[in-house]
Backbone:
């Protein structure tokens, strides 16, 4: 009885194990239905039941493989993955299929998760909202750029040429004054200098400058330079030694052909001591006490220029000087009236004396008219 009881227990145990094994195989073969349960939207309860006929559940390996493939195909039809999903999750075939073996069972991913993971678009990303400006908030304005006209005017002011006319006067030996004119905007123009009753015209250089030495007619010398359009400049100079010289000036306008001649200590025409425009000597002769000199002022090439000649004789040289005025008959003045001024120092300073003469006809061209007696002879005691 004990043996039969034990045998019955063993048979029952063996039968249970065999039944469980058959059920497990049945479940493994029916992967497709279980996958269908996972792909459904609503959760489903999957319960495996033992087959009623365990022996009939056993099938050949080839048959089980065909059913498994059919189940997988049915599962793929139900999930219906999109082309994007297939392209995104496509993977090489497992090695088992290449070898002709049944692939390992895999659970299919839920269709909703697969679609959500694959079908991404820009709308999924958060887009920052545009901030609208309320009417109370001021609208920022761009910084105002400087006006083109103002910038141009400023640049023109910075680069504009300085047209200031300036004149300087610096005393020199022999009571002379060196005038330096600067007129950057008046190159090559006529400029008239005035010093008391003495007037003469010069021409500026290409830079509008000019330097000229003028005999001072007063210790407190005043000079002015003026241009035809009104630009002018003045200069003052305190000149020492003005009273140490005896000075006589002759001035005229245009091509008068007049000239001042000085014959020192009885000199003859063209000899030593004859001082004129052709042999003017210089200030150094006066400072050395040897005699006088003539200063020529004005530009003879300028039209209707005012010309002047100033004879300076040092008082320290002593002796005597005879002064004459001569006028040459030229093609420019023949048959015409020639006017000139003679400047001599008097009690009240230098005073002009008018000189006027009608020149001979053009047949006398090249001859000279001598005006004698119009200038007193200079007689000075020799300084011992």
Residues:
């Amino acid at each position: 009885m004990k043996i039969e009881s034990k045998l019955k227990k063993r048979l029952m145990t063996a039968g249970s194990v065999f039944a469980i094994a058959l059920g497990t195989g049945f479940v493994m073969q029916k992967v497709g239905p279980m996958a269908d349960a996972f792909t459904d939207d609503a959760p489903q309860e999957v319960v495996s039941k033992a087959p009623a006929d365990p022996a009939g559940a056993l099938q050949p390996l080839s048959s089980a493989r065909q059913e498994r493939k059919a189940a997988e195909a049915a599962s793929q039809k139900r999930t219906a993955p999109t082309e994007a999903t297939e392209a995104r999750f496509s993977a090489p075939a497992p090695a088992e299929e290449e070898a002709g073996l049944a692939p390992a069972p895999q659970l299919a991913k839920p269709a909703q998760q697969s679609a959500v993971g694959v079908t991404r678009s820009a709308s999924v990303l958060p887009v920052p909202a545009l901030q609208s400006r309320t009417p109370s908030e001021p609208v920022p304005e761009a910084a105002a750029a400087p006006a083109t006209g103002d910038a141009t005017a400023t640049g023109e002011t910075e680069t504009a040429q300085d047209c200031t006319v300036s004149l300087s006067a610096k005393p020199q030996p022999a009571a002379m004054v060196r005038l330096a004119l600067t007129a950057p905007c008046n190159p090559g123009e006529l400029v008239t200098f005035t010093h008391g009753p003495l007037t003469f015209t010069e021409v500026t250089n290409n830079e509008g400058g000019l330097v000229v030495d003028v005999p001072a007619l007063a210790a407190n010398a005043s000079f002015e330079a003026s241009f035809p359009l009104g630009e002018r400049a003045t200069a003052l100079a305190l000149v020492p030694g003005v009273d140490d010289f005896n000075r006589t000036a002759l001035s005229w306008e245009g091509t008068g052909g007049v000239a001042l001649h000085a014959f020192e200590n009885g000199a003859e025409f063209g000899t030593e001591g004859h001082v004129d425009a052709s042999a003017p000597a210089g200030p150094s002769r006066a400072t050395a006490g040897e005699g006088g000199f003539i200063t020529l002022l004005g530009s003879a090439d300028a039209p209707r220029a005012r010309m002047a000649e100033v004879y300076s004789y040092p008082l320290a040289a002593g002796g005597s000087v005879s002064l004459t005025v001569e006028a040459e008959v030229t093609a420019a003045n023949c048959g015409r009236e020639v006017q000139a001024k003679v400047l001599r120092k008097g009690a009240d300073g230098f005073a002009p004396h008018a000189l006027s003469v009608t020149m001979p006809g053009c047949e006398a061209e090249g001859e000279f008219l001598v005006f004698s007696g119009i200038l007193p002879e200079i007689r000075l005691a020799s300084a011992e």
User: Anything to note?
Assistant: The chain has a mean pLDDT of 74. The longest strand covers residues 319-328.
